[in-house]
Design a protein that fits this description.
The protein is of the alpha+beta class and 103 residues long. It has three helices and five strands. Strands 4-3-2-1-5 form a five-stranded antiparallel sheet.
Length: 103
Amino acid sequence: MTTPRPDIGGWYRLDGSALFEVVALDEDDGTVEIQYFDGTVEEMDIEDWEAQWDDGALEAAEAPEDWSGSVDVDEEDDTAAHGGKAEDREVRASGYEGIDLFE
């Protein structure tokens, strides 16, 4: 059985517990850059990838439902990014009302 190529954006599990995502693949250097769910970034040799896959220590996994573990997003940041609270939206200016574009 052939070892699958590391898929950028793919999620994998190491030794049955440590969940990580492949974030980069450098075929010239022979390395795979991985980011664990907690945000830790490491580099792995492609030879190590293949050996761990063949040994069964490395396996494909589903992406976590809570993706915020590795990106360190606070609830306040997430709320602001999605338009904030309803009362905050009422304070903002509304569109282009009152602007005469042909002056």
